[in-house]
Amino acid sequence: MLSIDAAAHSSRWRRRHPVDKAVLGFGLTLLAVALPPWPGALLVLVTALVVLLGPARVPAGRLWRAYRAPLGFCVTGAATLLVRVGGPDGALLGPAPDGALRAGELLLRSSAASLGVLVFAFTTPMSDLLPRLVRAGVPAAVVDVAVVTYRMAFLLLDSVRQVRQAQAARLGHRTRSAAWRSLGGLGATAFVRAFDRAGRLHTGLAGRGYDGTLRVLVPPTRVSRGFVGASVALLTAIVVLDAALEGRLS
């Protein structure tokens, strides 16, 4: 199981309805995109961190391991704004005018929006979200494919881990050439195992009278008006505080 999925299953907000957490998480993401980078996106970033480390009780180390990948993409995207191709003096590359300012604004927006998405991801397991998408109007066939793919992804990752451990025990990574051979064998083994598991899954579903719909038990939960109201109040406070600070800074 992935670290972020394990954290979602053990979250103190696990039993809350996904709509509750979607209002908060995606609301923060929307504000990060809609508000000015300074101070709006910064306020969203700080708020998301406080929510994750405070009420949601996400361990800081686990949050950093999940956040560093999207943060790397944010930094890479922002770095491209520092340079420009061509210029009035005929140079091939040169510093972009106001590049540092634009890069900083993009980095603030994207990193804050990523944290908003992580608020939802760290508190909502996919197994709770996917079955409820049918009620939201998503075709059942699409949801069934997503559920099966989600389950098969973990089985495939587990198979890859077992094969890598077996290769390492047999000194399959001792030299560079051996590591390349082991990598090729790993890919071939994972491919064969994926098809084998898919075939067994199809046989098992057919033996259980599969009629085109996967029926999954979903824990009975209700949308909390108090939680949604508090989330809307928090988002409104961010907008008001942003407007007040922007007026003072200007």
UniProtKB/TrEMBL annotation:
Compartment(s) where it occurs, according to its Swiss-Prot or TrEMBL record: Cell membrane
Classification via CDD domains: EcfT
Family annotation (InterPro entries): ABC/ECF_trnsptr_transmembrane, Cobalt_transport_CbiQ, ECF_CbiQ
One Pfam family, short name: CbiQ
Topology in membrane: Multi-pass membrane protein
Keyword annotations of the record: Cell membrane, Membrane, Transmembrane, Transmembrane helix
Transmembrane domains' residue ranges: 22-54, 66-85, 136-157, 226-245
NCBIfam families recorded: ECF_T_CbiQ
Protein known as: Cobalt ECF transporter T component CbiQ
Organism, as annotated: Streptomyces fragilis
The organism's taxonomic lineage, starting at the top: Bacteria, Bacillati, Actinomycetota, Actinomycetes, Kitasatosporales
Gene it is expressed from: cbiQ
